[in-house]
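Supplementary notes for students who missed Thursday's class. We covered one full example, reproduced here. Read the sequence, then the structure, then the short commentary at the end.
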Amino acid sequence: MSTVPYASADRRPAGQPPFLAVEDFFASPVRAAASISPDGTRIAYLAPWRDRLNVWVEGLDTGEPARCVTADERRSVHTFHWTDDPRWLLYAQDGDGDENWHLYRVDLDDPDAEALDLTPFPGATAIGGETSPDRPGKVLLHLNHRNPVEFDLCEIDVASGELTTVAQNPGRFTGLLVTPGDDLYAQTWKPDGDIDLAQWDPATDSLRPVTTFDGTEHPLGVDPLHPTPDGRGLWIADYGDTDRLGLARLDLATGTRTEVYRHPAFDLDTRSSVFPGMPDPLILDRRTGDLLGVRHLGERQVVHPLDPHFAAVLEQLEKLAEGEVAALSSDLSGTRWVVSFSNPRDPGVTYFYDHSTGESRFLFRPLPALDPETLAPMAPVTITSRDGLNLHSYLTLPLGLEPRGLPLVLLVHGGPWHRDSLRFDPTAQLLANRGCAVLQVDFRGSTGHGKAFLQAGVGELAGKMHDDLIDAVDWAVAEGYADRDRVAIFGGSYGGYAALVGVSFTPDVFAAAIDFCGISNLVTFLRNVPEFVKPSLYNNWYRYAGNPEDPAQEAELLARSPISRVDAIRAPLMVIQGGNDVRVTQAESDQIVDALRARGVEVAYLVKDDEGHGFVNPENNIDMYRAADRFLAQHLGTRTA
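Structure (token representation):
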């Protein structure tokens, strides 16, 4: 069983590593996101074609050459999956970041056939679209093709492309699901924040209540909320009577919740609810849909097996490489596996493993030009806030430098209902290569650290949530890692808002700031979100920040907005924005840039018209990070070529 050499996090070269180009971190991977076919004979993966990531397929044993099976020249493909029939692949694509997702089908038996758009409805978006063992040849998805603010539950026959409406949303349901027994259940998000789940009979429009979820525990909704194979229950995220998010089984007949597994110290790993590319917390049998294992995440990931066969497989998989098991797929028999690993210094290394023979082989590294020896170690650290909370954080220190008096970049995660983790972060690695210490902080309100820590963020935007970031800077200075006069703040989405708060609410702390698609005005942001999103805001933005339709809360929102303190900003600022962003629209960036330029404050502004909330195409990411690299070199004195 061979492994790829991996550099210990404790090794430090005598001098600084080679100066790495921005392209080394942000160009397209040579291969990524491999997944094995249901019959175990082929793998599909992402690789460049005409400067865009597309889906490729190749044989595992037959010598079948790799071939590109999608042909998107405009925008990289990031999400795809096999169906239960190895003839068909499905992938999702939107239009220049507008988040109007369409589901496409690829026929692997007909290389000359164009991909078929299974949801050809202009302006509509498809959510979901994966197969399940109880509905062979079909995919379920939610689709707002009939009404932009109402998502119907639909089913598509993969082979024919025929779309059928399983249940039309009458307008009052936030979500619909169907069990393997074909029973329909509806979710309703109420203005008080609670989430009702009831069995629904469309013929009589009658509801049988099943349970009510406390919405304060689930700011982004209950996830997972997955039917069990017998059709009589759901696997759900549940705190029970504890502070830790675990996995429970909800009995759909009685509403009784039974604990499946709860880690004593770590929360269920729910990062995929924000970023679908992250591993799902549930590991399911591809053939039966049975639960094989569950992921929890603390400083590091813990995969808890719930099936003896999978436990034996997992034991062998974890020997293949250093790091944490990330993407995981198997054939229908559960014998042949493809696994990738999450590692701060060896991103996405991917293996094939056959449990029947014990054979394993290395498949690829996504970024082979990045030598692990040249990448910086990332270490978990715990910082105590001024009011006594433990702030779980990650510190990346540059190789070859004494970790004293370094320029520091506070890299703030988005959400804010998300968290950082021990994984390869290209931004952190680029900054470390330039000689920066990089600190990533799970401030209060972040997920993954218990219910009390999550709810400590209520009402604390630009308040204690920001105090936590300042406390982390003070810690890095006091520990000697950071030079007080060379601290920058950098973040995207909520992290972009945090960067703007940093230079407007605490203007003496930061020497520079970079805001990537961040909110400058909470009032205009909340008024401009898509209409179909607004019913789901009660448990997150309305609860944590405020509802702009209430005059008193509108005033409070404005007071917590960087635009209200624009006159205090004096640090150099860079603002980066996607022109097609439907979450944080360009108006958010325009208004802060216009206000600053009117005052004569230095602000660099980069807009990419063919991107949305986060950049996808490699040339745009490269442009963005080249500009950020120059900006930080100018204002922090970071390393240059």
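Commentary. The chain has a mean pLDDT of 94. The two ends are 40 Å apart (CA to CA). If anything here is unclear, bring it to office hours.
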